[in-house]
Design goal:
Distance between the termini: 7 Å
Structural class: alpha/beta
Shape: globular
Number of strands: 16
Number of helices: 12
């Protein structure tokens, strides 16, 4: 029998603290080989392709987690267009878990909430190992939506945020965002009127796709000692800013070269695997270190891996079964 879980059940048991712990552990597994994670397969539904015209995509993200002996796949999409007109959130998805020995489907659950938490957690864990000696941090943030809030909540679990500079092309959204996060950020929150003003501090997190397209963050704005996170599938910074970076860090090399901030440069033959400094997983398990980072400009591209989602989903599944949660459904007749 397969257990079915609603998003409300997932939200009851999955906490940000749990997700941070799971993401950190799974990063290490990606580096030591105990996690198997093929690159995600993308179905373009008009995100960048001219057809079909639905302004979105779906990703298929399978993985096996050795320490948990669990296999699974996440089928997740981001749809603007008609979905936005219907008043629905951009992200939608489900996660399926399977017993890797018997091939039995153990659980099906909402994947959007886990994705949102994981996306913030992976930035925080990357920062934790890029700046292992820092306890306090200054952040520049591009975007003031729900995903940006989770980014800040996650970073605040690992660092004291001394200063947060926020830029959004909708200033009223920035003002609302400031009210929502003022209890999370101990330091100053500065709302910026120009994007250049937010490109400063220890870390610059760009989580929003801009109306004018990619390339918002310019090479000349980035100071030494700053790590820039161009999150998501679309470009957030100028290509020259990536080319001029001293270190390029990714979560999954093959995947990072074919989607997101590095995709165009890779297609042009300007960025390849040989230009990747290291992975987040190698930093987490100690097989790689960064030196002289206060004088280096760093680009970190965590596109997101199915491994994180499957590990988190399995942790939830184990807890939920112990609590008698979920609805049993005989999908396969086995």
């Amino acid at each position: 029998m397969t257990k079915l879980f609603t998003i409300d059940e997932v939200k009851k048991l999955v906490t940000l603290d749990d997700v941070l712990q799971s993401v950190e552990k799974t990063f290490a597994g990606l580096a030591d080989g105990t996690v198997i994670n093929p690159a995600k397969v993308t179905l373009d539904l008009g995100e960048t392709a001219p057809y079909p015209p639905y302004e979105g995509f779906f990703n298929a993200m399978p993985a096996y987690i050795g320490t948990q002996d669990i296999a699974g796949i996440k089928w997740v999409g981001g749809i603007a267009g008609e979905r936005k007109k219907a008043g629905l959130p951009f992200l939608c998805g489900i996660i399926v878990l399977a017993d890797p020995k018997l091939g039995k489907f153990l659980a099906v659950m909402d994947g959007a909430y886990i994705t949102e938490l994981r996306t913030g957690a992976q930035t925080a864990i990357a920062l934790k190992y890029i700046f292992p000696k820092k306890k306090q941090i200054q952040i520049g943030l591009y975007g003031a939506d729900a995903s940006a809030k989770i980014q800040i909540q996650s970073v605040a679990k690992c660092f004291e945020i001394q200063e947060l500079r926020v830029y959004d092309d909708d200033f009223t959204l920035s003002q609302k965002f400031q009210q929502e996060i003022q209890d999370i950020v101990n330091g100053k929150i500065i709302l910026c009127n120009h994007p250049k003003q937010a490109c400063c501090g220890d870390a610059v997190i760009a989580s929003k796709t801009w109306k004018g397209g990619g390339g918002l963050i310019q090479e000349e704005w980035i100071d030494p000692g700053t790590v820039v996170f161009p999150l998501g599938a679309t470009a957030k910074m100028e290509n020259e800013a990536i080319i001029q970076a001293d270190f390029i860090i990714v979560d999954h090399i093959q995947q990072a070269l074919h989607r997101g901030a590095l995709k165009e440069l890779h297609e042009q033959g300007k960025i390849g695997a040989e230009h990747i400094t290291t992975t987040i997983g190698e930093l987490v398990n100690g097989t790689a270190t960064l030196s002289d980072i206060e004088n280096k400009r760093i680009v970190c591209v965590p596109l997101g891996t199915g491994a994180m989602d499957i590990a988190i989903a399995d942790d939830f599944y184990q807890k939920a079964v112990r609590k008698g949660m979920g609805t049993e459904f005989d999908i396969t007749g086995e």
